[in-house]
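ugh ok so i messed up the first submission bc i forgot one of the chains. this is the corrected input, ALL of the components this time, i swear. 214 residues overall. if the numbers dont match what u have on ur side tell me asap before i send this to the collaborators (the ones from the other lab, u know who)
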Amino acid sequence: MKLFIDTANLAEIKTASTWGIISGVTTNPSLIAKEGRNIVDVIKEITTLIDGPISAEVQEGLAEAMIETAFDYAKMHSNIVIKIPMTMEGIKAVSVLSKHGIKTNVTLCFSVSQAMMAAKAGATFVSPFMGRLDDATNNPEAGYELLQDIRLAYDNYHIQTEIIAASIRHPLHAEQAALAGADIATIPYKVFLQMIEHPLTAKGLDIFRKAEKQ
Ligand code: G3P
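and heres the new structure output, hopefully the right one now
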């Protein structure tokens, strides 16, 4: 499973790039707004930090407008992936963009039906949102089950669209993504820091450190 980082914060991306395990970056309007900077400037800087797919989301609207913005964003760098919201206008836009070789990531996916339509339109990636589905259904397995179902549906028809497990709130989501067979998990910086921690690892390190001092 490839690991992407889900942030527009350049300091987080810079630090994460030193780990040697990050293959891409996803952003969204909320993450960009948190930085208080123009999306083009932020995305351009991100392309200098990570050599992999960089998702930049267009403003939701009519297909024609999203397509126009997508072509503008795609000019920034060959690694740019256009994030498109899961609407019928978005599906129309993906159908056009995929025919022009522009990579797309259909976001805000919460069902197999949506994932199948995104794949049929030629989406490069689809982003099922685990955390928001868990929250909405009050079921900590809802996101996991969705990933499993999309994986099965895609494998039934040898669909090449890659599944990006998104809206990851904690390490369990990352583990569920791997167990479900997601191609990618896009993970917030703070969750990466949680993933590396385990109380028995800390205990073992403490024992080894004490032994090294003897
Ligand atoms: O960036 C897409 C997705 O990972 C956002 O998730 O629910 O934490 O806003 P969320």
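quick check: The chain has a mean pLDDT of 98. that seems consistent at least. The longest helix spans residues 142-156.
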